[in-house]
Automatic annotation (TrEMBL):
<dbReference type="InterPro" id="IPR026183">
    <property type="entry name" value="Taxilin_fam"/>
</dbReference>
<dbReference type="GO" id="GO:0019905">
    <property type="term" value="F:syntaxin binding"/>
</dbReference>
<feature type="compositionally biased region" description="Low complexity">
    <location>
        <begin position="202"/>
        <end position="211"/>
    </location>
</feature>
<comment type="similarity">
    <text>Belongs to the taxilin family.</text>
</comment>
<dbReference type="Pfam" id="PF09728">
    <property type="entry name" value="Taxilin"/>
</dbReference>
<protein>
    <submittedName>
        <fullName>Uncharacterized protein</fullName>
    </submittedName>
</protein>
<feature type="region of interest" description="Disordered">
    <location>
        <begin position="191"/>
        <end position="211"/>
    </location>
</feature>
Length: 211
């Protein structure tokens, strides 16, 4: 069935949530916290659509085989109906009885053909119904696929924004660390100067006392 192929192609073409995870490799990061609920919300309908597809395939998956078997049986019946029945040499009562038997056989074949026709018609209706359901499922899948792509694009945009903010914060932290290190170095230098200057003053005071 062409519709089955289309449904399978749409399922295969659906974006995978791993694409968003690859862009946000750090476990427990804020971008993962933002992306996981959104992706999960999209995966739930996807599972429901997959179950619908499985149900349709289970219900109508054997329709093609049944139709093929009916076609083979019909060909066999047509072949049997087309065979030449030998005409007996007898005449009179035997000939009439033979004609009656031949008519009975043909009537049985007609009944069989009609029954097979009804079965084929039923299978055709089932096939039409299955195709209609699959086409509806394809439309749902395409709609969901479009929504999924849009949401994943939004998630990737958010991840890029989070990444930019993280890089900016990292640079600011580095600048603050450099400033703190510079201040500590200046403080140590001032302490060295203060301690060294205080010792010189005390030495001069001691020399004045002894003089």
């Amino acid at each position: 069935m062409e519709a089955v192929v289309n449904a399978a192609e749409v399922l295969a073409a659906a974006p995978q949530p791993g694409a968003a995870d690859d862009a946000c490799p750090e476990e427990g990061s804020s971008c993962q916290a933002a992306s996981i609920p959104a992706v999960q919300a999209l995966l739930d309908p996807m599972e429901d659509l997959s179950r619908k597809l499985e149900d349709i395939l289970k219900t109508y998956g054997t329709a093609d085989n049944a139709v093929h078997q009916q076609s083979v049986d019909r060909e066999k019946m047509e072949e049997e109906a087309g065979r030449v029945v030998p005409v007996p040499k007898e005449t009179g009562e035997d000939t009439g009885r033979f004609k009656h038997m031949k008519v009975g056989v043909l009537q049985q074949k007609v009944v069989r053909v009609q029954r097979e026709r009804d079965q084929l018609r039923s299978e055709h209706q089932r096939g039409v119904l299955a195709r209609s359901q699959l086409e509806g499922l394809c439309r749902e899948l395409q709609k969901h696929n479009k929504t999924l792509k849009t949401t994943l694009n939004e998630i990737q945009t958010q991840i890029a924004q989070y990444s930019g903010r993280n890089n900016k914060l990292s640079q600011e932290n580095k600048n603050l660390a450099d400033k703190l290190e510079s201040l500590m170095h200046q403080y140590e230098q001032r302490e060295e100067v203060r301690v060294g200057g205080g010792g010189g003053v005390r030495a001069q005071e001691g020399e004045g006392v002894f003089a």
